């Protein structure tokens, strides 16, 4: 009912700007449930009338600010009435989203990101790698959590994205997710691609990544010693999945293949040379360079161990990258290896 509908403008006093001005927020309340958003307006705290939810005084700045607030109120009322006439029920979030343009032609960040990932997933194993797909899915998960925690909504309109949104999300990855600089960099790159796609498709007028910069830091990679590799090989595990992941890691160690190139191997990549030795002929997915690898006994035994267990014509039964990535860390720890063991 109309009596449950209320619009309130208030100051977000806990987040003052560097110039001392305070952001004005709008709160929509329907049946005790609230939805809120930034009015994209900053005012002096001393000029704000809390009871009226307006700027006091007759200055030009005050009049312009109040006209903006009146325009927002009218727009929200129109959105409320339109939803009330069309649907059986009205919620605060539906009114907020309608006013901001959410839910219209996929012009929302997470909806577009979700559609991108669905399309990307269909190309995995053909044009795209499982590892890249996993990165996009993880990025979507982090972004969805950030929007929910920071803005209390399930999605956000493209027109709501600002440079501050980008830097706030970077801070979320560093602080809330405790990611190092290079991990943050690896997530911001696919995010930037989604934004570029939105700009090119006319969903965004201005690029919020404009002037944003993050640089990948050069890191000195460690390595496993012969003794540590032996610990992995001799390790015993209750979980069969750990045994599989360990074997796949050892296979990569003795062939020099990356996780992606290993996962892409099929039986057609095997070749027996004139001298009777077994070789792998493949192309590196990242560089396209042809690679010919003579299999040592350790790698050959692993292929024989899992012969016939992979799906379709794959050479090895490789789990998804996330399971392999997390599994090898747990395995190394169980084997007494303190180093940060990762796939490449």
From TrEMBL:
<dbReference type="InterPro" id="IPR025269">
    <property type="entry name" value="SAM-like_dom"/>
</dbReference>
<dbReference type="InterPro" id="IPR035386">
    <property type="entry name" value="Arm-DNA-bind_5"/>
</dbReference>
<keyword id="KW-0238">DNA-binding</keyword>
<dbReference type="Pfam" id="PF13102">
    <property type="entry name" value="Phage_int_SAM_5"/>
</dbReference>
<dbReference type="Pfam" id="PF17293">
    <property type="entry name" value="Arm-DNA-bind_5"/>
</dbReference>
<dbReference type="InterPro" id="IPR010998">
    <property type="entry name" value="Integrase_recombinase_N"/>
</dbReference>
<dbReference type="GO" id="GO:0006310">
    <property type="term" value="P:DNA recombination"/>
</dbReference>
<protein>
    <recommendedName>
        <fullName>Phage integrase SAM-like domain-containing protein</fullName>
    </recommendedName>
</protein>
<keyword id="KW-0233">DNA recombination</keyword>
<dbReference type="InterPro" id="IPR011010">
    <property type="entry name" value="DNA_brk_join_enz"/>
</dbReference>
<feature type="domain" description="Phage integrase SAM-like">
    <location>
        <begin position="108"/>
        <end position="213"/>
    </location>
</feature>
<dbReference type="InterPro" id="IPR013762">
    <property type="entry name" value="Integrase-like_cat_sf"/>
</dbReference>
<feature type="domain" description="Arm DNA-binding">
    <location>
        <begin position="9"/>
        <end position="95"/>
    </location>
</feature>
<dbReference type="GO" id="GO:0015074">
    <property type="term" value="P:DNA integration"/>
</dbReference>
<dbReference type="GO" id="GO:0003677">
    <property type="term" value="F:DNA binding"/>
</dbReference>
């Amino acid at each position: 009912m109309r009596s449950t509908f209320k619009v309130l403008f208030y100051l977000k006093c806990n987040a003052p700007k560097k110039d001392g001005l305070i952001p004005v927020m709008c709160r929509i309340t329907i049946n005790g449930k609230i939805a809120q958003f930034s009015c994209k307006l900053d005012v002096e705290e001393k000029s704000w009338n809390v009871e009226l939810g307006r700027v006091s005084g007759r200055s030009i700045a005050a009049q312009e600010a109040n006209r903006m607030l009146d325009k927002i109120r009218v727009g929200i009322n129109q959105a409320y009435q339109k939803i009330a006439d069309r649907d059986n029920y009205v919620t605060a979030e539906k009114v907020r989203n309608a006013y901001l343009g959410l839910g219209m032609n996929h012009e929302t960040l997470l909806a577009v990101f979700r559609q991108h990932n669905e399309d990307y997933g269909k190309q995995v194993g053909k044009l795209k790698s499982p590892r890249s797909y996993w990165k996009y899915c993880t990025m979507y998960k982090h972004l969805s959590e950030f929007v929910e925690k920071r803005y209390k909504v399930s999605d956000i309109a493209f027109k709501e994205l600002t440079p501050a949104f980008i830097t706030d999300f970077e801070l979320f990855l560093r602080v809330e997710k405790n990611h190092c600089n290079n991990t943050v960099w690896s997530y911001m790159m696919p995010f930037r691609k989604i934004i570029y796609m939105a700009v090119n498709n006319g969903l965004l007028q201005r690029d919020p990544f404009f002037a944003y910069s993050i640089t990948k830091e050069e890191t000195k990679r460690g390595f496993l010693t012969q003794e540590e590799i032996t610990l992995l090989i001799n390790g015993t595990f209750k979980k069969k999945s750990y045994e599989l992941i360990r074997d796949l890691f050892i296979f990569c160690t003795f062939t020099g293949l990356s996780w992606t190139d290993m996962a892409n191997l099929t039986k057609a990549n095997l070749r027996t040379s004139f001298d009777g030795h077994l070789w792998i002929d493949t192309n590196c997915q990242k560089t396209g360079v042809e690679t010919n690898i003579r299999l040592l006994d350790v790698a050959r035994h692993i292929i024989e161990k899992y012969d016939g267990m992979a799906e379709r014509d794959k050479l090895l039964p490789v789990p998804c990258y996330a399971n392999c990535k997390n599994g090898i860390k747990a395995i190394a720890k169980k084997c007494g290896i303190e180093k940060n063991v990762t796939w490449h």
